[in-house]
Amino acid sequence: MIKLYNKSILAALALLSSSSLYGENIVDSIMKLRTDVEGLYTKIDENKESYKSQMKSIAMQVADTEAQIGRKETTLKLSNLELEKTNDKLAKLGSSAQDFKPLLADAIAKLETLIKANIPFKIEERLASLAKIKADLTSGAITQEKALSLVWASYDDTLRITKEIGLFKQNIELNGEPKMAKVAKLGSIALYFATLDDKVGYAIKESNGYKYQIEEDGEKIQKIVALFDALQKQIRTGYFSIPNALVLSEVK
Q: Model-level pTM?
């Protein structure tokens, strides 16, 4: 009877020990879970702050870009008004027999200034075309009426270029060396380039003209390449994330 009693006591003690260990394990698990949850809340708070900072930065970039585009559009409107005034003057003299070479020379000079001041798209070819009109008019190879028609067409072409979006090829000067490159032209807002040796970048305005800047940032390079791919596929509408490379100019 005593032996049976002792066995019962031992069994009870074993059960209590097992229950105690089980309880300790539960407590440890709960504490670990609580620590994990607190850690997750901390990460969530950190991610929220990071997200807020990123959104604030993006909002500032968007505001800056919109402001620059607004200034560019204002410049274009003023240029368009000047072109319209010149066209009106040319139209009024179009049927006149009087000598209006001085007016043509003035119109060509203004157009040359406009071409040089705006986005660097095929500048050499466009200026060469105007130079030929002047030379032919001076030599008598073309009449004043013909010169008037050609100058008018050049003005129309300049206005068209300010709105045109697409891929083209042209020579650019990169680090002092001429290179043939593909260019992605976004109206008169921005001009990106891609050379045959896989260098990409964009044109930036300087005090004395334009400079082609090579992009070194890997993420921005990918965005420029994606833009070229989209234009190659004739995709001209939609949302594109591209480096901020607005070409700003001032026509004086």
A: 0.58
